[in-house]
Amino acid sequence: MAGLELRGIRKDYGATAVLKGIDLSIADGEFVVFVGPSGCGKSTLLRVIAGLETVTAGDIHIDGTEVTRLAASDRGLAMVFQSYALYPHMTVHQNMSFALENMGIAKAEISARVDRAARMLRLTDYLQRKPAALSGGQRQRVAIGRAIVRDPKIFLFDEPLSNLDAELRVATRKELAALHAEIGGTMIYVTHDQVEAMTLADRIVVLNGGRIEQIGTPLDLYNRP
Ligand code: ADP
Ligand code: ADP
């Protein structure tokens, strides 16, 4: 079956249950946003999907294949973090191509992917610069570019706009929407910003205390009492 399936996901840290049984199906190409109060488990759920955290119970399937015990690198997904985590000594081009070189992808293919991502993100003129010579918005676009060049089926975003000022947040949000329209991958996105959730999501998942409290389209949730 195509898409991402989470079944009975539980995550404990010591005696503390952080995820208490999450069941969720996400279709190919869907833009799903996780919202909820601080500490409700949004970020943990994203990291569990990414393979950056093990689960205490439950299983994860991508396109019908169980990936619960696969490493992050074998899940066909890419994550964009809140802090850009760029390598300061590398150029924009090197930041985007580095992981692909380690994966043994041919040079011509790497260049093609970097050029395409740079075009989409309006970074073509900045490929030879280092992160220190970029604006905050440009740095966050490099971080997004680094995910795009991996050519993942699923993109994971952990509050990617929260370090940007209000104006850049709106601009980058629009770019993300355009990006989703252009490349059509599945996007799973954590935020505590209602406007981001309402404008970006096909479906919003409201988490509370480690459980799914509500789930629906922005319109569904907006119209619900
Ligand atoms: P959210 O992203 O919704 O703010 P998190 O998923 O970051 O919430 O955290 C959920 C809960 O799990 C919080 O109570 C947090 O303190 C706890 N938690 C997160 N990571 C760890 C960890 N590595 N060790 C212990 N507790 C953690
Ligand atoms: P390598 O490419 O040699 O695996 P990296 O430093 O690029 O080394 O990555 C370390 C680990 O984290 C790998 O498992 C890699 O696949 C994974 N990884 C790195 N960046 C991302 C990302 N943006 N999204 C998902 N996984 C990533």
UniProtKB/TrEMBL annotation:
<keyword id="KW-0067">ATP-binding</keyword>
<protein>
    <submittedName>
        <fullName>Sn-glycerol-3-phosphate ABC transporter ATP-binding protein UgpC</fullName>
    </submittedName>
</protein>
<keyword id="KW-0813">Transport</keyword>
<comment type="similarity">
    <text>Belongs to the ABC transporter superfamily.</text>
</comment>
<keyword id="KW-0547">Nucleotide-binding</keyword>
<dbReference type="GO" id="GO:0005524">
    <property type="term" value="F:ATP binding"/>
</dbReference>
<feature type="domain" description="ABC transporter">
    <location>
        <begin position="4"/>
        <end position="225"/>
    </location>
</feature>
